[in-house]
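From the methods appendix. Each design record in this collection lists the tokenized structure first, followed by the designed amino acid sequence. Records were kept in a plain field format so they could be parsed without special tools. The example shown here is representative of the layout used throughout.

RECORD:
FOLD TOKENS (825 positions):
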């Protein structure tokens, strides 16, 4: 008896106190399925530290001082609960396991296992929770333990989002519960789950059960709201009944703080009836009424964003409401990250859609005749003016409604104050100076300092102050009341001019808008496909893009995406996309993926093998064995002319040749690499190497006369020298290449820098002096540079390899030109 009614009793009262605190402090979100048990974390555990320690201490005293008592097992269970509520899950688990193995009472052992199941769920150890649950299926439990087992099983399934199993166990637990508030809450949760699963009739029945058990007002309120959602609507009269029901809820003074939720449910109800305008109005009223419940306000914003995005396709407004949702929604909301991700996607989405719509509109306006365009712009501006006036009037009405609502709220508060005053002091409201003072403060806050006069409510606040009434009357005699147009401040001609300025006039401007539209279609299609996962919209967007921009640089990738997207939906479309891709872009990776779906994997395996070969060739380069390195490169590139490492091998070969044949060859090969692999990540590195080499050569400039070698029966280069100029550096190599192609000369050409003043185009290699002279003559006849590039100075000549090395080292162009005139008549 001492063990039971002394320390054990106190410990049990501490647990009840902790559980009461948890239920009170937890923010129940009735918009979601309520958790079977209120949720807690270490913050709550720390706040209850003293009570938890006292509970453990008292329960331990019962165990220590009365070891033979039949209440020892129960005391251990209290210790386990205290550990669990203290977020000390390992210790709680060990305690319950001890009760199960050492406990003398079978009922206590079962209770320990039931509590162990919940502790595993709280610690998210679901495998062990399932194991305990399965074990208890074989045991014969008391009524209380059976009820708690069903509740804990349901809790486990709720955590795992297994609603069917959750509701099955809840129904079994509900049958074993005593009538009261807790059973009403469980009935409400069962109703929520059935409603979520689409069983409205079952949900309605359990909501009715919850109401019959006299639940707390808040639970009763949300139960009634949910009942309206699942009410079977057979005809128009049923719709009217529900509408009247919502109005009764709104008019009930006890529901003042729940108005936001009532309007939200009205919005849901109207949306189900396809009354979008009414639903939008309801959700907006819900937002306006949410002064304290930020979560509810966020839900209303979210509903509005869905309507504007999915139903009305007003993506700009949808984005704004998504922005409001994210800024208002508490971060502990289960789907907060998903909503935030969609908001970020929507920002990008709106940019694409707006670009397409606005640019297409501007392009359409650009082809209209002047009269039609002027008429259209006038209509647009006048419509804009009308909307501005309508918005101004809407704001005025909104202000009047808000003032009326404030008046009603003040009246209600004063009535409440009067009631409280009478109830507590037994005096009439106006005999209570505190209540009167409060009423006067509320009046001044809402209406301002107004004089007692007829129609005082509809007078402007600024027009009724006794202090400035005379001054305002004087002003009213001298000032003319502004017209409606002046209030809006609309300049029709100015607006038209502003719109006209945005319309493209030149082909360059039009092409710029079209390029933006092309980019937007590409981005929008990818957004639909990869992030919104809306296959039909992705297909439609990509097809539109291909039709409008058949020469788009994105065409290979878009065709491949269409091939994949339509593969299961429309085999004919898929085959068409694949056929165009293979015919027009056979060398693209996307075409190779159609021929060989495993191309990426095969290519990756090949790249790994080539990497080993490249490492070997590079090691020979580091060890100055450049010929061996080049032989390895030539061998592997002959077998695999195109691979992911082609640019790496080409650059390494250029570096080898530079060390073998000298600096001019180094720069020449690097410049060829930059032209051939312009899109390679190594191109920038190659440019750095060229610049470093050129700077080094310039610093080594020598003005000494070169002693050129008169050995002409050797290979020659053709050189076209020009004064350094960015435009010429880009165009002359193209001109030379074009001449080689026209004459079908199988020769290589490239660009080099001679010094700070001159650059050159080099053609290699011509077998001897005679062939070199013939080529120089053919070039002069074929390419008229002086006519094409007026004012520019060019030198063209042929030179042997040995003499070119001397020229490149000395930088003495005039010295070689003198030698050239004497020896190449």
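DESIGN:
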């Amino acid at each position: 008896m001492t063990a039971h009614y002394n320390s054990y009793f106190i410990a049990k009262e501490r647990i009840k106190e902790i559980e009461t605190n948890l239920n009170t402090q937890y923010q129940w979100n009735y918009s979601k399925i309520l958790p079977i048990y209120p949720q807690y974390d270490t913050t709550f555990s720390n706040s209850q530290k003293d009570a938890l320690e006292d509970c453990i201490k008292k329960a331990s005293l019962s165990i220590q001082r009365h070891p033979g008592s039949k209440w020892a097992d129960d005391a251990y269970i209290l210790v386990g609960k205290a550990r669990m509520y203290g977020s000390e899950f390992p210790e709680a688990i060990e305690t319950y396991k001890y009760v199960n193995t050492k406990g003398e009472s079978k009922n206590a052992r079962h209770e320990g296992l039931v509590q162990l199941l919940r502790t595993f769920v709280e610690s998210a150890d679901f495998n062990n929770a399932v194991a305990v649950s399965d074990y208890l299926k074989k045991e014969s439990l008391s009524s209380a333990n059976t009820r708690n087992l069903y509740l804990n099983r349901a809790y486990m399934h709720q955590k795992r989002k297994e609603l069917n199993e959750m509701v099955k166990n809840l129904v079994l637990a509900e049958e074993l519960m005593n009538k009261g508030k807790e059973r009403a809450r469980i009935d409400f949760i069962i109703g929520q789950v059935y409603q979520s699963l689409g069983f409205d009739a079952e949900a309605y029945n359990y909501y009715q059960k919850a109401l019959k058990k006299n639940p707390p007002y808040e639970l009763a309120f949300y139960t009634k709201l949910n009942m309206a959602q699942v009410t079977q609507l057979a005809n128009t009269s049923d719709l009217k009944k529900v509408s009247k029901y919502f109005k009764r809820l709104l008019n009930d003074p006890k529901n003042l703080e729940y108005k936001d939720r009532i309007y939200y449910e009205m919005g849901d109800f109207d949306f189900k009836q396809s009354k979008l305008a009414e639903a939008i109005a309801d959700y907006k009223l819900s937002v306006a009424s949410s002064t304290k419940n930020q979560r509810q306000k966020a839900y209303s914003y979210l509903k509005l964003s869905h309507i504007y995005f999915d139903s009305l396709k007003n993506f700009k407004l949808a984005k704004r409401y998504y922005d409001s949702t994210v800024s208002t929604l508490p971060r502990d909301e289960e789907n907060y990250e998903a909503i935030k991700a969609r908001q970020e996607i929507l920002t990008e989405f709106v940019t694409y859609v707006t670009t397409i719509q606005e640019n297409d509109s501007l392009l359409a306006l650009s082809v209209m005749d002047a009269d039609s365009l002027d008429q259209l712009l006038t209509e647009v501006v006048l419509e804009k003016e009308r909307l501005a006036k309508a918005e101004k009037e809407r704001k005025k009405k909104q202000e009047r409604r808000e003032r009326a609502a404030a008046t009603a709220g003040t009246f209600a508060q004063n009535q409440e104050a009067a009631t409280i005053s009478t109830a507590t002091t037994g005096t009439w409201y106006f005999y209570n100076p505190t209540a009167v003072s409060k009423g006067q403060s509320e009046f001044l806050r809402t209406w301002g300092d107004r004089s007692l006069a007829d129609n005082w409510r509809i007078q402007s606040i600024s027009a009724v102050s006794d202090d400035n009434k005379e001054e305002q009357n004087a002003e009213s005699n001298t000032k003319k009341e502004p017209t409606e147009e002046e209030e809006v401040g609309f300049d029709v001609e100015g607006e038209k001019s502003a719109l006209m300025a945005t319309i493209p006039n030149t082909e360059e401007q039009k092409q710029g808008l079209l390029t933006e539209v092309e980019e937007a279609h590409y981005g929008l299609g990818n957004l639909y496909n990869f992030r919104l996962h809306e296959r039909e919209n992705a297909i439609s967007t990509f097809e539109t893009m291909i039709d409008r921009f058949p020469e788009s640089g994105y065409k290979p990738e878009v065709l491949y995406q269409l091939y994949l997207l339509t593969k299961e939906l429309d085999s004919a479309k898929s085959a068409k996309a694949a056929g165009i891709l293979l015919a027009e872009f056979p060398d693209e990776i996307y075409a190779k993926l159609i021929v060989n779906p495993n191309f990426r994997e095969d290519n990756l395996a090949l790249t790994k093998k080539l990497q080993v070969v490249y490492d070997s060739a590079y090691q020979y380069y580091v060890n100055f064995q450049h010929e061996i390195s080049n032989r390895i490169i030539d061998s592997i590139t002959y077998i695999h002319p195109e691979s992911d490492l082609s640019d790496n091998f080409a650059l390494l070969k250029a570096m080898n040749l530079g060390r073998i044949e000298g600096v001019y060859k180094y720069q020449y090969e690097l410049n060829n690499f930059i032209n051939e692999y312009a899109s390679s990540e190594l191109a920038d590195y190659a440019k750095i190497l060229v610049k470093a080499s050129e700077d080094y050569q310039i610093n080594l400039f020598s003005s000494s006369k070169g002693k050129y070698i008169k050995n002409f029966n050797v290979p020659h280069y053709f050189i076209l020298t020009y004064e350094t100029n960015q435009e010429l550096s880009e165009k002359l190599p193209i001109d030379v290449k074009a001449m080689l192609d026209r004459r079908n000369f199988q020769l290589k050409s490239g660009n080099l820098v001679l010094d700070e003043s001159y650059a050159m185009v080099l053609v290699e290699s011509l077998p001897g002096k005679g062939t070199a002279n013939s080529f120089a003559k053919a070039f002069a006849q074929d390419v008229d540079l002086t006519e094409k590039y007026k004012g520019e100075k060019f030198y063209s000549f042929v030179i042997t390899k040995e003499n070119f090395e001397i020229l490149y080292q000395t930088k003495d162009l005039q010295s070689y030109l003198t030698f050239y005139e004497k020896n190449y008549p």
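APPENDIX NOTE: Residues 420-425, 460-486 have pLDDT under 50 and may be disordered.
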